[in-house]
């Protein structure tokens, strides 16, 4: 039961093979057993989860079940969920019990899904390794001496170790795709504006986007069907006709299901900078795609090399503004002792935020300040436009772009933690997608030394259905995505 994905579990629930209460309890037992090793969850509340599971079983008994009714899901601790501690991985919010639900949570609740717990993450989603959390580092189930990726590392570790069948993540510069790659999952960052940001604690608002992390493209499609949709409470939410993201997946398309598909291979993804063992796996995956009927074309994203520099100006700029709300007054942590009002702000923020968050606030405040705004912030915005235009140009010649997700497999805990620039450089393949607002996926494409590697698929705006189909066809002829790490007893 435990190795089944969302789609298979949904069938088991429908066939009354298992109840939601039983299934939820199964996961809660595994969490109790393995979470102390992995630190994937920050908050688990068995009573709350089981109450939701009981309600889901009643919904089913009454004949009102959806595909997700009774499915337990892990929620990144960046999504506000009513009555749940919602920390965003920060001491600043270590006492914040959300009085309301994020739109994404509301959608899952309406579908009858069960919240299994809130997952660990880099503080305020700033990081690529889940080492900056106030709640301690997340360990990678494939090798517990290594990082799970970040910032959605808790969600990734939970799903990889079978402590949840699927989870949510958010992706500002790669935080769904990179941990998916490092933990052998399928993750999708939708087009900016497809999933509501309401109730999703803001990091860099023009880049943040929520999305699913699961074992397969099929499961990601199921989750996205529930997550996506217009929301008048998010001013950048897109008012589009609701799509069925699963619609292409079931179609039988013969042994060349991708005939006619043009895959763009950007020169910039295949130069130096990627570990050879990862590149080999990416090349092999491209070979599989050719067998499925796809053709490849060389394309170029000449400004991609500027994405790290542009992103690490824009994201901190927006973060410095978003994080100004944490002042020790309205909610969150307040220093126990202070002299006057200004001292209270200063001490609360000094004590409540971790080092990486402070670094970003300082950089952001600097690049927005009078005299530096033109030189840094405005310049970064111009580069952002050039990067977006590169993709427009590339998508004239191809339907999807393929490359590595991360330049290496999971690195060792502590390896990059003291060198922020090394950490930032590890985002080289993912940032451009957010700067352009495009959809991107990572899917498992093999192992180097028992460590998983991810293949990145990038599509044009609103091409989620196509991306999911392209991922699904590969998953029908490969079995990387159904491999599990050793050591997390699958007997139950
Ligand atoms: N690693 C990037 C950062 O630290 C991206 C994080 C994210 O996508 N939330 O900003």
Task: Give a structural overview.
With 492 residues, the chain is of the alpha+beta class. It has 15 helices and 13 strands. It has an 8-stranded mixed beta sheet with strand order 6-8-7-12-13-11-9-10. The chain has a 3-stranded mixed beta sheet with strand order 1-3-2, with helices on both faces. The protein starts with 5 loop residues before the first helix and ends in a 15-residue tail after the last helix.
Give the strand content: 5-15%
Strand segment count: 13
Largest sheet: 8 strands, mixed
Which ligands, by name, code or SMILES, are bound?
Answer: glutamine
Our measurement of the CA-to-CA distance between the termini, rounded to an integer number of angstroms, reads 7 Å
Sheet/helix structural class? alpha+beta
| Rg on CA atoms, Å | 21 Å
* Helix amount: 25-40%
Global shape: globular
Q: What order do the strands of the largest sheet run in, or round the barrel if closed?
A: 6-8-7-12-13-11-9-10
- Give me the number of helical elements: 15
Give me the secondary-structure topology.
Blueprint: H1 6-14, H2 20-38, E1 41-43, H3 46-61, E2 72-76, H4 103-111, E3 114-119, E4 139-140, E5 143-147, H5 153-160, E6 167-170, H6 177-183, E7 186-189, E8 210-214, H7 217-227, E9 262-266, H8 276-291, E10 295-299, H9 307-322, H10 341-352, H11 355-368, H12 373-394, E11 400-404, H13 420-425, H14 431-436, E12 440-448, E13 451-459, H15 464-477
Parallel strand pairs: 2-3, 9-10, 9-11
Antiparallel strand pairs: 1-3, 4-5, 6-8, 7-8, 7-12, 11-13, 12-13
Helix pairs in contact: 2-3, 5-6, 7-15, 9-11, 9-12
Bound molecules: glutamine.
The site of glutamine has 13 residues, from loops.
């Amino acid at each position: 039961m435990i190795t089944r994905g969302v789609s298979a579990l949904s069938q088991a629930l429908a066939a009354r093979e298992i109840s939601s209460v039983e299934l939820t309890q199964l996961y809660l037992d595994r969490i109790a057993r393995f979470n102390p090793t992995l630190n994937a969850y920050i908050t688990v509340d068995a009573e709350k989860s089981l109450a939701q599971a009981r309600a889901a079983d009643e919904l089913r008994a009454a004949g009102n079940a959806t595909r997700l009714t009774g499915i337990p899901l892990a929620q990144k601790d960046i999504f506000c969920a009513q009555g749940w501690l919602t920390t965003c991985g920060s001491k600043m919010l270590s006492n914040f019990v959300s009085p309301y639900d994020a739109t994404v949570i509301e959608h899952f609740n309406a579908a009858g899904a069960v919240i299994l717990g809130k997952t660990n993450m880099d503080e305020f989603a700033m990081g690529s390794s889940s080492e900056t959390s106030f709640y301690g580092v997340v360990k990678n189930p494939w090798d517990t001496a290594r990082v799970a990726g970040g910032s959605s590392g808790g969600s990734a570790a939970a799903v990889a170790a079978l402590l949840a069948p699927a989870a949510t993540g958010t992706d500002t510069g790669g935080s769904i795709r990179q941990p998916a790659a490092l933990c052998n999952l399928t993750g999708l960052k939708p087009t900016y504006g497809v999933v509501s940001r309401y109730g999703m604690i803001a990091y860099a608002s023009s880049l943040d986007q929520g999305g699913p992390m699961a074992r397969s493209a099929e499961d990601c499609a199921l989750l996205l069907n529930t997550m996506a949709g217009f929301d008048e409470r998010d001013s950048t939410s897109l008012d589009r006709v609701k799509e069925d993201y699963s619609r292409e997946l079931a179609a039988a398309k013969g042994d060349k299901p991708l005939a006619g598909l043009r895959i763009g291979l950007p020169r910039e993804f295949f130069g130096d900078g990627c570990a050879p063992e990862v590149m080999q796996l990416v090349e092999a995956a491209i070979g599989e795609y050719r067998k499925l009927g796809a053709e490849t074309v060389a394309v170029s994203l000449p400004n991609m090399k500027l994405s790290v520099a542009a992103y690490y100006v824009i994201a901190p700029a927006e973060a410095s503004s978003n994080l100004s709300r944490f002042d020790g007054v309205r909610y969150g942590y307040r220093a126990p002792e202070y002299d006057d009002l200004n001292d209270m702000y200063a001490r609360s923020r000094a004590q409540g935020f971790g080092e990486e968050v402070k670094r970003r606030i300082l950089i952001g405040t600097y690049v927005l300040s009078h005299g530096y705004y033109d030189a840094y912030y405005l310049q970064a915005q111009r580069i952002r436009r050039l990067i977006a235009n590169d993709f427009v140009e590339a998508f004239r010649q191809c339907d999807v772009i393929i490359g590595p997700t991360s330049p290496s497999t999971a690195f060792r805990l502590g390896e990059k933690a003291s060198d922020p620039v090394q950490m930032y450089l590890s985002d080289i393949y993912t940032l451009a997608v957010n700067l352009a607002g495009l959809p991107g996926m990572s899917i498992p494409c093999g192992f180097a030394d028992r460590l998983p590697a991810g293949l990145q698929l990038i599509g044009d705006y609103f091409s989620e259905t196509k991306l999911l189909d392209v991922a699904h066809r590969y998953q029908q002829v490969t079995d990387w995505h159904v491999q599990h790490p050793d050591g997390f007893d699958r007997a139950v």
